[in-house]
Amino acid sequence: MSQFPRRMSTLILCALVMLTGAAPAARQPALDAAEASALRRQLDARFEVVPLARGLGLVPRESRGLIEIDEGVVSIEGRPLSGGELRERFGAEASLLLRLSYLTNADL
Question: How far is the C-alpha of 53 from the C-alpha of 40, rounded, in Å?
Answer without folding.
Answer: 19
